[in-house]
Specification:
Structural class: alpha+beta
Largest sheet: 5 strands, antiparallel
Strand order of the largest sheet: 1-3-4-5-2
Strand content: 25-35%
Number of helices: 4
Order of helices and strands: EHEHEEHEH
Number of domains: 1
Distance between the termini: 11 Å
Length: 108
């Protein structure tokens, strides 16, 4: 599993992703400790996403993002349900991510 940092690479890779799962029970700060700062750390142009990570897992690319909170402070301080976007089955990815979060293993 690796975090994709280059925004130029990301745009092509995430094209066509859609909701494939949820990550429940984890805060923004917990995600930052394991994944580092979000790939997209600014509000999207339509304000529907405040924070988004893009992670490559093998040949698959997944996104972790808030959805329609419309409030960056809420996302950073209260949100505990995150959407997982991708183009394929996300169960194994979510399992690995939850393992990293509970064992505090880091990608960064």
């Amino acid at each position: 599993m690796e975090k994709i940092i280059s925004k130029e690479d990301v745009l092509e890779l995430v094209s066509g992703t859609h909701l494939v799962g949820k990550l429940v029970g984890y805060t923004y700060n917990q995600l930052v400790k394991v994944l580092g700062e979000p790939t997209f750390n600014e509000v999207s142009s339509d304000s529907k996403v405040q924070k988004e990570w893009v992670i490559k897992d093998g040949n698959d690319v997944f996104t972790i993002y808030d959805w329609k909170t419309y409030d960056e402070q809420y996302t950073m301080n209260e949100l505990s349900i995150w959407n997982i976007g991708g183009k394929s089955y996300a169960g194994d990815f979510i399992y690995k991510l939850e393992y990293m979060l509970t064992s505090k293993k880091s990608l960064v």
